[in-house]
Each structure stands twice: as C-alpha cells, then as structure tokens.
Amino acid sequence: MIDSLTIKNFKKNNYLKLTNMGKITIIGGKNNSGKTTVLESLYLLYNRELPKTILDIYFSHGVKVTFTNDTFWAPLFNCYNMENEIKINVRYDGQSESLEIKRSNDVSTKVSLKNPEVVTKRLLDFIYTKNDKKIGVAHSFIDSSTIGNGSTIKTNWEKPINNIKKISYICPRLDYNPNEIATKFGEIDISGGTSELVEALKIIEPKIKSLSSVSHGNYSLIYGDVGIGRKIPLSFMGEGTAKLFSIILAIVTTRDGIVLIDELENGIHYSLFPKLWELLVKLSSPDKFNCQIILTTHSYELLNSLKYELSDKTNNSISYIRIDDNIAVTYDNEVLLNSLDNELEVR
After folding, report:
1. Which partner from 99, 165, 240, 257 sits 20 to 30 angstroms from 41, CA to CA?
2. pTM of the model
C-alpha cells in the first residue's frame, strides 16, 4: 500500500508531497488545487500503456490534442515548461518506485529514400526505477514519417517492465469502451464472481437480480434483470447505477492493486453515501480484494457521511488529505471527525 507520494513539475504541481496515505485515501481541496493531478500522476506511473495513458489524461479533461511536438507534450509539464523534468515517486512497505519524464535529444530522420524531406522527432523519455534501480525505459515521440496518414504517437521500449502493479482509473469525463467493460465482466462471470457486483448494485437498485453481457454485433453491453420480464441495459438504470458498477468492477478486477476514483459523489444521491463508504471499506479489505482506493471529492455531504466509519476506533484504514497551494495536510480520523462534528470547513 502506498503511504507517501511526491510529485514534481507535473501539470498543476511544481512540488507536492502527500504522506500518511491510507487504504482508502480521500483527497479534498478547492477547484484547481491539484486533486485530479494526484490521481493522474499515479495513473501515469503505473499504467504503462504509452501513449494511451497520456491520451486518457487529456481526454478526461475534454481536451482535443494536436499531434505536434510542442502542443502534445507540453501540457504534462508544470507551466508548460518542458525544460524541467517531471518526477513522480511513491513509497510503500519500505520500498520506493519512481517515474522520471524528460526531454531527450531530438532525432532527425528522412521520410523515405525517395523523399528527401527531413522529419524531426521530439523524444520524451520515461524512466522507471524501483529502489533506485532502473527497471524500465521508454521513448515516446510524434511520428509524421508516413506520408498522407497524418501524425501518430509511438513508443519504443528500450527496457520493458514486468510485474506491473494493477491500476484502474474511474473518471467522470472519460468515455469507457463497452467491449472492454464486457471483457472484464466476462472474466468475473467465468470465475463465478458476479454475485459481488449484483449485491453491490442493490445499494442503488434493490430490485436487481442478475447481470449478463449481451453481444450486439461488434460490441457488447451489460444487462440487468430487475424483475420486469426482460433484462435491460445497465446504462438505462441511471447514471448512479452505471457509476457504481464501474467502481465495483474496477475493484473486483484490480485485486492487490490501486483504484483511482475522481469525484466519487458524481451521479450518486447523498442518502446512499453511508452505504457507499461501508461498501468501499469492505471490498478494499485484505479478506476481499485488498486494493488501495484513492479518490477525490469536494462534497461536504460525502465527507459528513463518513462519520460512522471514522467513529469505529478499530478502523484505521481511512486517510483524508486536503490540498491547498501545493501543500497537502493529512487529517487523522479523530481530527476529521471532530471537524465534521463542529461543522468546520475541511473541503
């Protein structure tokens, strides 16, 4: 379990350090304080499907990228300054793991033997280390060498990485591939684990009895039986049901890994928050799926509904961290509970 995170020169944060992170780490703070950036830094560190990971980060903000050297890479860097290296470091169980992102020497190549045009590829190096030992190196670049097909992003792995920690990212603005969701569901269905999903969804839809994946030509959708004589698409049961399903599916398929959730409260009625916390504590526990959940919120109702879990003296798995002006302050359970009881502003 990650207990500390340090971010340097990544997007909003020129320097930010989070400490005393818990099994469930809640990150609060004002708009544009860097809450989402914390999730994205971990996603970039552990989801090593380059360049898909970078595109996911951009698309989650509704940004349409242009495949040119400067406009594509620069938004990753603090103040768009690509001269300062990005460094992301985590510590857990006495170990450390890091990612360093920096510009390397540009490479100029000819488009083809028949075409004398020279194309400059601006490389970005991704250097991964564990306990100060280099475990992986990747070079990503904009490739415009294919005439007539536009530019694309490519990655060459100089040193591939094995034994990658699992990570899932639930973002309210990121469109998910229904086939990918159906594939994950299918893996759970084969092992007989869909009952966990069904029971969890009863928080929002008590009538749901079962789930199944239904193929529609080139894509598949998840359907649910709510006792009306036929199954209906899960997406027709409301935004909250679809959001909760995505969260539970991520937890179940990310055993021993990390689940990132941006704006947990979105689409879910506040009256359900206590049951939602109870569910997250249960599913993330070592006797269930043993995953660390790191989430953001700016909802006072969501934090206030946490009182029951905080009042349980045996539950030390929850950590609340508030970010303000590149400073992260960790509240222990007693301080957070007292703050909420006295209606102090902690968001």
Report:
1. 240
2. 0.89
